[in-house]
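ok trying again, last paste got cut off:
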Amino acid sequence: MTTTGADKASRRPVTGPAAVLDRHFELAARGTTWRREVLAGASTFLALSYIVIVNPAILGQAGIPRTAAFLATAAVGGLATLAMGLWARLPFAVAPGMEMNSVVAFSVVGTLAFGWPEALGMVFWSGVAMLAVSLLRVREAVINAIPAELRSALAGAVAVFIALIGLQIAHLLRTSGGHPAGLGDWTGAPALALGAGLAASLLVDRFGGRARPVAVPAGILASAVVCAAGGVAAADPGRGLDGAGAALFRFDLTVIADPRAWGVILVLFALDFFGSIAKIVGLTAHTPLQDGAGKVPGMRQALLIDAGATVAGSAAGSSSFVAFVESAVGIRAGARSGLSAVTTGLLLLLCLFFAPVLAHLPVEATAGALVFVAVKMLTALRPARGDRLALAAIVVAAAVTVATLAIDQAMAAAFATSAVLRAAGRRPVHPALWITTLVLAASILLQYLQF
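nice, full thing came through this time. structure:
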């Protein structure tokens, strides 16, 4: 059989920088390309770019200098996301958790009257505890013990959470104290921007053919155009980095000696511990990021990175860091490797030098893309026909997320539902499931008693 020149060319190995990227990130093995990964990483950055504006604004309410919180958000988030891509080789962005900064600003400082250096000290100690349980592989054990129906339930909870964030950003949903408080303005420019972005993403995803990976950025662009036409202005993340070092190593580590701080540290630890589990499982469920056994290669490194980022962030002036839920945007755009996270991390670091550029992207421009991602995640949930246990867990997790805007509470409800129904149906229940359910319930009770 004669081999043609075209056949020889097709078999010619990839060389140069592309070959280096392919070997380290296993692009071909994961069915992706460097172009798709870079585009997906940029999409993730656009979806989460609001955090470099919102996190300093929230932590500023606690007295933390805003430029210092901005430095911590962009620098620590960028470096941790780079580590996530290069070491864990997973497409997760790392950034301050929205549930965490609210607890620090409004509960720890606002309600309990701790100073912000003490609050950062509590964040530090919760991060040290997270590092310890990650090194001991406790979080891995919990994740690996989660049955299939709960993986789908957590994916559903994360999807609903993303959708609610989109509705909140678009002013369609009002919140009070971190909980839904009613409907907002459904006729304003932000609402129209959400509709335009969602429609654009759905159209590109349905009819775009090979252009489908740009569905998310297309939605963000469409929303940005509507925002500009409707006079929706973006908040300015700050001019320059004057005073950015004002919170460096200002945390008060002696706070660990105050018995009042112990409950707060435990609450911060529980939020991070269970929130990260829910997000990692939810983001990877029904994607090629999980192997045939339902495990996530690189998970141990990912858990160590997000715990380490919390410790580093507290030293720089921010609340706890987590695998950010907006990573779902990049995963939906085709991210399958750490190259996507490397792209996101570099863009976060560039914020340090081009912060005013973010003023041209209103946070409202991301709402439609977030709802689109949530829709696609929800439609990917296909429990086996007749699997009432999976359906019950999904419904309970989604309902609790809507009612509370708290993934840890949705996780507790889904775990309890699964454990009780499994026991009632005489199906095996892993001991870790009972233990995790009880610990979750105790941590939630402690939150209500503490705050």
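cool. The chain has one domain: 25-233+246-450. The chain has a mean pLDDT of 82.
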